[in-house]
C-alpha cells in the first residue's frame, strides 16, 4: 500500500462517498415517507425542514455525514496501518516499524480532531432541533387553549409534560444515533467487505472448496444472528412503551401528593396515598420484570455471538497462515476487518433494544401531535357575537356527546349589570359560565351576543399564581401596574401584609391560603379594569364580611363593568341585580334581584 497516494486519495473518496450518501439518504427519505413509520416521523420533524431552516439544516446534515464517512475512512486506514506494523515486526524491518509508528501518530492526531469536531457538530444539530421542536410543541399545546381542551379528549395523551421535556430530547438524540449508525453500518460493510475479499482465499468446509469462503461464511453467520435477535427482542417494543407510561404515571402521582400535602394531612390520608403510590409503583416493577425476562434471552444471545466472533476469523484464516499464504499483519487485519464488518452487519441486531425505545418515543410524540391536530380541526364554538351589551336568546348548551344540558337560556345585560348564577351542586353552573365566557369546548345553539371588549376576565374558584416574584404572580399574565397602584389595590383587598414580599421569588400558589388566593383575584380585577368579569365561586373561601367588602369595592371602582358570578350563598344576591337559577335546566329564566 502506497501511503502517500492513499492519503491523497482519501479526499476524493470522501467527496464521492458524500455525494452518493446524500443522494441515497434523500431517496430513502422519500421511500420512508410512504410507510406508516415514515409518515409519523415526518409529521414530528417537519418543522426543521421548513424554508427558513432548510439551508442551515442541510448544511449541518452534510457535515455530520462527512464526519461519519471520515470515521469509516480512518478505520480502514487503521487496519492497513496495523497490517504494515505487524508485518514489519514479523520481518524484523526496523525502518518499516518506525515508519508505521509515524503513520500511527498522524492517525491519532486526525482521530482527535475528528472526535472534537464531530461532537461539536452533533451537539449543534441536536440543540437547534430541540429548540425548534420544543417551540413547536409549546406553541401547538398553548394555542387555541389546547392545553385546556385536551382534557376533554376521549383518548387523553398521558404525561404531556414528559412528552415535551423528555421524549422530544431523546427522540432527537435517538434519530441522530440511528441515522449515523445505519450510514456507518452500510459504508463499513462495503469497505470492509472489499478488504476481506482481498484477504480471503479458498475456504475448505467438509471437503468442499469455497472461493472467498470467509466472506460468505461471515455474512451467513451475522445475518442468521440478526434474524434470531430480532425475533427474540420483538416483544420489547410494547414493553418499553409501557415502561415510559408507567414511570410517568408514578411520577405524576408523587407530584400530586406534594401539591396536595395539606389536604392529605387534614384527611390523614397517608395510608390511602401510600396504597395508591404502591399500586403505581408495582405497575412499574411488573413491567420492568417483563423487560428483564426478555432481555435475559436477548443479552445472552448477543453475548454468545460476540464471543464466538472474537475467535472465528482466526480459525477461518489459520490454515492459510500456517501454510505461509498470509503474514501476521494479514491475520491482524483480518481480525480487525471481520470485527468491523460484524459490527456493521450486527448494527440492527445490537440496536434493536434501543430502537424499541426510540419507536415508543416516536409513537408517543405522534400521539401528542395528532391529538393537537384533532383539536385544531375541531370547530371552535364561539357563539358570542359583538354587541353593546350581553344578550342571549334561547341559548342551549350540549355536552361532548351532543346531549342538551341547558335550553331556552334568555339573558339581557347592559353596562353596570351584575348576573348571579345559582343552583344545586352539580347542576352545571360552572359549565354555563364557561359557555358564556367562550371557553366551553362543545356545541352551543341559539343567539348569543356580548359587549365588545378586548379581553374579559375569567376568575376560577382557585386563582392561578405562577412561580416568580409576588408582583409578577399578582400581575399575571400581562397586567401593567406601578408599585403604587399595586399596593393600593392590595390594601383594598386586605393583602397589605405582603408589601415586603413583592420582589421575593417563591411558589406563591403553595404559600397563599385559598382565601388569600381569592383576594389576589380581586386585586387583578382592580388593576386590569375589565368591562366584563366572570367569577366562578371566587369568594367561596372568604368569610361573608370580606366577601361583601370585595364585591362593594369592585362595584364602586368599576360601576360600568358587567359582572357574571357563580355562587351558592344567598348573601351574593345583594351584589347582583339579576339572577338565573339552574334548578330547571329545560327552561332557565332570568329573575330580577333586589339590589341593596
UniProtKB/TrEMBL annotation:
Q: Looking at the keywords, is Ion transport present?
A: no
Gene3D superfamilies, per database record: ABC transporter type 1, transmembrane domain, P-loop containing nucleotide triphosphate hydrolases
* Record key words, sorted: ATP-binding, Membrane, Nucleotide-binding, Transmembrane, Transmembrane helix, Transport
GO MF terms on file? ABC-type transporter activity; ATP binding; ATP hydrolysis activity
Indicate where this protein resides in the cell. Answer: Cell membrane
Membrane-spanning ranges: 12-33, 54-76, 96-121, 182-208, 214-237
Q: Name one Pfam family in it.
A: ABC_membrane_2
Enumerate the SMART domains for this protein. AAA
rRNA processing listed as a keyword? no
Organism's domain of life? Bacteria
Question: GO cellular component annotations, sorted alphabetically?
Answer: plasma membrane
Q: Which residues form the ABC transporter domain?
A: 390-595
Please list the residue ranges annotated as the ABC transmembrane type-1 domain.
58-357
* Membrane topology field: Multi-pass membrane protein
Per its record, how is this protein called by name? ABC transporter domain protein
Amino acid at each position: 500500500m502506497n501511503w502517500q497516494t492513499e492519503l491523497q486519495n482519501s479526499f476524493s473518496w470522501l467527496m464521492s462517498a458524500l455525494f452518493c450518501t446524500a443522494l441515497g439518504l434523500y431517496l430513502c427519505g422519500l421511500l420512508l415517507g410512504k410507510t406508516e413509520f415514515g409518515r409519523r416521523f415526518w409529521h414530528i420533524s417537519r418543522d426543521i425542514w421548513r424554508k427558513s431552516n432548510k439551508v442551515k439544516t442541510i448544511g449541518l446534515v452534510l457535515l455530520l455525514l462527512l464526519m461519519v464517512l471520515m470515521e469509516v475512512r480512518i478505520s480502514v486506514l487503521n487496519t492497513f496501518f496495523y497490517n504494515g506494523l505487524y508485518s514489519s515486526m514479523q520481518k524484523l524491518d526496523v525502518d518499516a516499524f518506525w515508519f508505521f509508528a509515524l503513520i500511527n501518530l498522524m492517525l491519532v492526531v486526525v482521530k482527535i480532531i475528528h472526535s472534537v469536531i464531530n461532537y461539536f457538530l452533533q451537539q449543534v444539530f441536536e440543540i437547534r432541533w430541540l429548540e425548534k421542536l420544543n417551540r413547536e410543541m409549546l406553541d401547538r399545546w398553548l394555542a387555541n387553549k389546547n392545553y385546556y381542551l385536551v382534557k376533554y379528549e376521549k383518548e387523553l395523551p398521558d404525561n404531556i409534560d414528559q412528552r415535551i421535556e423528555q421524549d422530544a430530547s431523546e427522540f432527537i438524540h435517538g434519530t441522530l444515533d440511528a441515522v449515523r449508525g445505519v450510514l456507518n453500518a452500510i459504508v463499513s460493510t462495503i469497505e470492509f467487505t472489499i478488504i476481506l475479499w482481498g484477504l480471503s482465499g479458498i475456504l475448505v468446509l467438509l471437503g468442499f472448496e469455497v472461493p472467498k469462503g470467509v466472506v460468505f461464511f461471515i455474512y451467513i453467520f451475522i445475518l442468521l444472528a440478526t434474524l434470531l435477535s430480532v425475533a427474540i427482542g420483538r416483544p420489547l417494543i410494547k414493553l418499553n412503551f409501557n415502561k415510559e407510561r408507567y414511570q410517568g404515571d408514578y411520577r405524576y402521582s408523587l407530584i400530586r401528593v406534594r401539591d396536595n400535602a395539606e389536604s392529605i394531612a387534614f384527611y390523614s390520608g397517608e395510608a390511602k396515598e401510600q396504597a395508591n403510590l404502591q399500586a403505581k409503583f408495582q405497575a412499574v416493577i411488573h413491567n420492568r420484570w417483563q423487560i428483564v425476562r426478555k432481555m435475559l434471552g436477548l443479552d445472552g444471545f448477543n453475548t454468545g455471538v460476540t464471543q464466538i466472533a472474537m475467535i472465528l476469523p482466526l480459525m477461518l484464516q489459520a490454515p492459510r497462515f500456517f501454510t505461509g499464504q498470509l503474514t501476521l499483519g494479514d491475520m491482524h487485519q483480518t481480525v480487525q476487518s471481520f470485527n468491523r464488518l460484524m459490527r456493521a452487519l450486527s448494527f440492527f441486531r445490537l440496536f434493536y433494544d434501543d430502537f424499541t425505545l426510540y419507536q415508543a418515543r416516536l409513537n408517543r410524540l405522534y400521539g401528542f401531535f395528532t391529538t393537537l391536530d384533532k383539536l385544531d380541526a375541531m370547530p371552535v364554538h364561539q357563539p358570542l357575537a359583538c354587541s353593546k351589551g350581553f344578550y342571549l336568546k334561547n341559548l342551549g348548551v350540549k355536552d361532548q356527546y351532543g346531549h342538551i344540558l341547558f335550553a331556552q337560556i334568555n339573558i339581557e345585560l347592559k353596562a353596570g349589570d351584575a348576573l348571579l348564577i345559582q343552583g344545586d351542586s352539580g347542576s352545571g353552573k360552572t359549565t354555563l359560565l364557561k359557555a358564556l365566557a367562550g371557553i366551553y369546548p362543545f356545541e352551543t345553539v341559539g343567539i348569543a351576543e356580548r359587549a365588545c371588549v378586548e379581553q374579559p376576565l375569567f376568575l376560577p374558584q382557585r386563582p392561578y399564581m405562577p412561580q416568580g416574584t409576588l408582583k409578577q404572580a399578582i400581575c399575571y399574565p400581562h397586567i401593567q401596574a406601578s408599585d403604587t397602584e399595586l399596593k393600593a389595590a392590595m390594601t383594598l383587598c386586605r393583602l397589605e401584609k405582603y408589601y415586603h414580599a413583592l420582589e421575593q421569588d417563591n411558589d406563591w400558589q403553595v404559600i397563599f391560603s385559598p382565601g388569600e388566593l381569592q383576594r389576589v383575584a380581586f386585586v387583578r380585577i382592580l388593576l386590569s379594569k375589565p368591562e366584563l368579569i366572570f367569577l366562578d365561586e371566587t369568594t367561596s373561601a372568604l368569610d361573608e364580611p370580606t366577601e361583601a367588602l370585595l364585591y362593594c369595592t369592585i362595584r364602586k371602582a368599576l360601576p360600568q363593568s358587567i359582572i357574571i358570578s357563580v355562587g351558592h350563598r344567598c348573601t351574593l344576591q345583594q351584589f347582583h341585580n339579576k339572577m338565573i337559577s339552574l334548578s330547571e335546566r329545560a327552561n332557565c329564566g332570568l329573575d330580577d334581584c333586589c339590589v341593596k
